[in-house]
Design brief:
With 283 residues, the protein is an alpha+beta fold. 19% of the residues lie in helices and 34% in strands. It contains four helices and 15 strands.
């Protein structure tokens, strides 16, 4: 079960220190080999690419936060563009980007804190981790560490991907890590245009498989504390060059506290209908 948790400032401050120290120790003491090599020239074969708009008009969110986010994305993109993940290596989002400080040029952008929008230095980089996670699901690479968003803040409006197909990030302990368990090298490309954040995974050889990501289950529960929690499961189909299905894999499950009413007024696009809301209040 999920429910909103209110923690004191002291608890939050100390928690960040402890979790960050733990992550630093993991980076330097575990037996993983982390990707760090970069190459400006792109690998010859495109595996998958995707782009997301830089600016969106969101309810109760000042646009200056999004304009600052674009600057933050440009800084982080330079750290990731051209990274090569060799066989046996692990891609670590935060190990490559590093801390997001004002000294490096990062500005206050939009961050989500316990379901509320606020300003924070380096805010907006979840758009980048979301993009990389989504692209990776369309490759032979294996996501070994990913954190789902705990809050569903905005209603679906023009959503083109399944709910829960992103990865939240927070320096440095909410990391996105990806293992190359194959025998080939892969290269990540990230760039920021005037309108979009654009990413791609590239290979030294043509792809032998393609992938289709789909939602298998999707339901909403009404919880005893008065709110709603949204759930789903994501799967992917693996197809060969003849477009035949050769695999059907469970990817992940998601659970997020909804920050809006699941049933919208008649005539408005909704995320749920009465038949797929489960009452967990005991009524």
């Amino acid at each position: 079960m999920l429910k909103p948790i209110n923690r004191s400032r002291a608890r939050i401050f100390l928690g960040k220190k402890v979790y960050r120290l733990k992550r630093y120790l993991q980076w330097y003491l575990d037996d993983k080999t982390y990707a760090k090599a970069k190459q400006a020239e792109p690998f010859p074969y495109l595996l998958f690419s995707h782009k997301t708009p830089l600016l969106r008009q969101l309810k109760d969110v000042d646009m200056w936060l999004q304009h600052n986010k674009v600057i933050n994305l440009r800084i982080a993109a330079k750290q990731l563009n051209g990274v090569i993940v060799k066989p046996g290596e692990t891609f670590s989002y935060w190990r490559l980007i590093g801390s997001t400080t004002r000294r490096k040029g990062y500005l206050d952008g939009m961050v989500l804190f316990h379901g509320k929008v606020q300003a924070g230095v380096g805010g907006g980089l979840c758009q980048l981790s979301n993009l990389i996670y989504w692209m990776t699901l369309h490759t032979p690479l294996t996501v070994t560490e990913r954190y789902r968003h705990s809050y569903d803040v905005f209603p679906d409006a023009g959503r083109s991907q399944p709910f829960g197909s992103g990865a939240t990030c927070f320096y440095n302990y909410l990391d996105l890590q990806i293992l190359n368990g194959t025998t080939e090298e892969f290269q990540l490309g990230i760039r920021v245009t005037d309108t979009h954040l654009v990413g791609e995974w590239r290979d030294v050889r043509p792809a032998m498989h393609t992938y289709e990501i789909y939602e298998n289950k999707h339901w909403i529960t009404r919880e005893y504390w008065g709110g709603y929690v949204r759930h789903n499961e994501i799967y992917r189909r693996v197809l060969n060059l003849e477009r035949e299905i050769v695999g059907d894999e469970w990817v992940t499950e998601n659970h997020a506290i909804m920050m809006y009413e699941p049933l919208l007024p008649q005539g408005t696009s909704s995320t749920a209908s009465p038949e797929n809301i489960v009452d967990n209040t005991g009524n």
